[in-house]
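Give me the fold.
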Amino acid sequence: VLAGAGMIAQSHVRAVRELADRAQAVAVAEVDPSRLTAFASQHDITGRYDDLEKMLEIEQPDLAIVCTPPYLHAAQIKTCLSSGVWVLCEKPICGSLAELDAIELAEAAGGARCSSVFQWRFGERIEQFKNLITTQAMGRPLVVSCLMNWYRDQAYYEVPWRGAWATELGGPTVGAGIHFMDLILWLLGDWDRVVGMADTLDRDIEIEDLSMAL
């Protein structure tokens, strides 16, 4: 099942279709009636709900894919886990260490697990690169440099939940840069110390529009 029928849910349901021999999208929960109808009709999904708990109770799925805005993630993850449903959640899964602790407690209590979306680990070129590093085919890695110069105009932040700490939980650091951070950790291992900065230089938003770390 899917929680949320926005833009990113399109990618997830297409992925499920590609895994038709292993998975089936049986239902979607979405609070916007028109979006719910359009999405479910487009992908021929019969189960249509405006409430996540009701969908879980009726459908009793094996897996829930959470595609809602970030501020809803932690609560919806715990709802799924408490129902014994495993979760694949879009990043970020939560906005604090306290919420992460609560998710871990919910996992321990019910046995279901939550994972986030870090798909770049599994690209063919990354797998080759990982093998080169592991075997030290090019020697011992000393330095990695990463630049993520993605452009977001002001219109991008006009979506109601974007641009505010309470709803987006952060700016491009957690919305996009998190993929590169995960990729560097995956390739080279944990960091020992981080020195960073973040600031809002140009956009009319609460969150940062620029961040750097060493």
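The two ends are 39 Å apart (CA to CA).
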